[in-house]
Design a protein that fits this description.
The chain is of the alpha/beta class and 287 residues long. It has two domains: 125 residues, Response regulator (Rossmann fold, 3-Layer(aba) Sandwich), CATH 3.40.50.2300; 118 residues, Winged helix-like DNA-binding domain superfamily/Winged helix DNA-binding domain (Arc Repressor Mutant, subunit A), CATH 1.10.10. It has twelve helices and twelve strands. A hairpin with a 2-residue loop joins β8 and β9. The chain starts with a strand and ends with a helix.
Length: 287
């Protein structure tokens, strides 16, 4: 199957031109007109059968820019390589892009051949990294073969397969641990109600249309209402990862903004430099 490339650009003509160039080279291309759409595509449609290999994103776009798109992409289980595009470049911004783990940085306008070269190089780098990872796994599996065989013999149902991601192999989903800690089916904060059995959220008796990641965020915050939960702690619940505070903040920012459009935004409180808190605004007013 040809590599799948996500093109994120708010200028329609440029976006379509990029898609045309890449499709002409045989790539499968999906277009996103803004950062919000890109993040939705990355987080909600990402699966082992339909993985973006490369993300090409404009740096400056509306409310959600290329850096935020890149941070989301780089924390996916099978992370794509990211190429940043900008019309305002400098040595400092190029260095900053590389520091943010971008694979490449292109200054507009750029010739199509330069784009082709960067995409080809990104795909080769991604393939090399995956091959290195597989080699490392193979060496580890060989070194521990006798122990693995013993484990498989004693309990074949729970033996961890080599291809199982280590971050998830021995841990239950984050929402399961949060729900079990409360020993309750329903978690209520003011007019917000979370059904931990059906994974549904109601506000003022109306069911909300939320994504799986948004559900996990609300579940994490509702377990300890009125408490400021650090960005990093929330990301452990939502993504099962330990990352730096600034990365966790960027990773959660778009989801929080989206949630605030779906029910009373006063419930989701930003605690500057710390994280987020879920609280009933009416209860706070009474105090």
């Amino acid at each position: 199957m040809n590599a799948h490339v996500l093109v994120v650009e708010d200028e329609q003509r440029l976006r379509e031109m990029l898609a045309y160039v890449l499709e002409d080279d045989g790539y499968q291309v999906t277009q996103a007109p803004d950062g919000e759409t890109a993040i939705a595509l990355l987080t909600e449609t990402h699966s082992a059968h339909d993985t973006f290999a490369v993300v090409i994103t404009d740096l400056v776009m509306g409310d959600v820019g290329g850096i935020e798109v890149m941070n989301i992409a780089r924390h996916l289980p099978n992370a794509p390589e990211v190429i940043l595009l900008t019309g305002h470049g400098s040595l400092e911004s190029a260095i900053a892009a590389v520091d943010q783990k971008a694979f490449a940085y292109l200054l507009k306008p750029y010739p199509p051949n330069q784009l082709r070269e960067r995409v080809a190089a990104a795909l080769k780098h991604r393939a090399d990294m995956r091959q290195l990872l597989e080699s490392t796994r193979s060496a580890t599996d060989t070194a521990g073969k006798s122990g693995a065989e013993l484990l498989s013999t004693r309990n074949p149902e729970t033996a961890v397969l080599p291809d199982t991601p280590p971050a998830y192999a021995s841990q239950p989903p984050a929402e399961s641990s949060s729900a079990s800690a409360t020993n309750e089916r329903y978690l209520r904060v003011g007019q917000l109600c979370i059904d931990t059995y059906r994974h549904e959220v109601m506000f003022a008796s109306k069911q909300l249309d939320i994504t799986p990641t948004e559900y996990k965020i609300l579940l994490c915050l509702a377990t300890t209402p009125g408490r400021a939960v650090p960005f990093t702690e929330i990301v452990v619940h939502t993504h099962g990862r330990n990352i730096a505070r600034y990365e966790a903040k960027d990773l959660l920012g778009w989801h929080i903004r989206n949630l605030r459009t779906k029910f009373d935004r006063r419930y989701l409180i930003s605690v500057r430099g710390v994280g987020y808190m879920l609280a009933d605004p009416e209860e706070a007013a009474d105090h």
